[in-house]
Amino acid sequence: MFTGLIEHMGIVAGVERIPAGVRLEIDPAGWTYRPQAGASVAVNGCCLTVAADPSTTSGRFTFNVVPQTLAMTTLGGLQPGSRVNLEASATPQTLLGGHVVQGHIDGTGRVLQVVTAGEYRVRISADPHVMEFITPKGSIAVEGVSLTVAGVNVEPGGGGWFDIALIPTTLEKTTLGSLVAGDRVNLETDVLGRTVVHWLKNFASGRIGGPES
Questions:
Q1: Neighbours of 82 (CB within 10 A)
Q2: At 200, is the secondary structure helix, strand, or coil?
Q3: Is 12 helix (H, G, I), strand (E, B) or coil?
Q4: Distances 97 to 5, 8, 100, 101, 157 between C-alpha atoms, Å
Q5: Could you tell me which of 151, 81, 143 has the C-alpha nearest to residue 108?
């Protein structure tokens, strides 16, 4: 798991098509963290497994990204030179300064507008299967960044948009500061909210308990 507090921005160094998907190489660009092969690293919010020890790949982080991940996330659109948000997996000693982030992307959203005058806000559209888990002042991870939902608008049919407000530190330390209208972003909703909605939809209507209830 992760916390949504980005530790560093890396740079895509290579994208190679392979039979099982894509082999992604990332230059950690000065990040001192050195994961072992098999470790989990969140890349733009997606939990990926390090495929080789960086000492054998000129210090680069190497990942094999399978077709399902490419279909569900924005990773398939990365090109050499793209900047990416990086976070090492959490440990029992990690300070949970953000929120519980699994690194399992629910889907992608699209930036509708970026407002920079006054409060810096980004408006993002999302499909119904994502919007149902987004609540005002709730938590959401956008490109792996832990954020608070600043506003929600649900449209007939279940789709809609939500706003996030970005502080200067987030704009400086993550890729969110370069977002423009039309960009696609990875979205992971709050696991606690997803759990509650799932339970209410499937078990709350007269199906609670066993034979003795």
A1: 17
A2: helix
A3: strand
A4: 7, 16, 9, 11, 35
A5: 143
Supply the DSSP string of 120-158, one letter for each residue. Answer: -EEEEEE-HHHHTT--TT-EEEETTEEEEEEEEEEPTTS
Report which of residues 94 and 163 the model is more confident about: 163
Number of residues assigned to the chain: 213
Structural element, H or E, at residue 36: none
- The Cα 128–Cα 40 span in angstroms is 29
pLDDT digits (tens, 9 = 90+) for 107-158: 999 999 999 998 999 999 999 999 999 999 999 999 999 999 999 999 988 8
Beta strands across the sheet bearing 8-18:
46-49, 40-43, 83-88, 8-18, 21-27, 61-65
User: Domains in the chain and their CATH numbers?
Assistant: 8-88 (2.40.30.20), 107-200 (2.40.30.20)
Q: Would you say the pTM of this structure is higher than 0.90? A: yes
Torsion of CA 183, 125, 132, 7, to 10 degrees: 30
What pLDDT is stored for residue 213 in this prediction? Answer: 41
Of 190, 199, 204, which Cα lies nearest the Cα of 98? 190
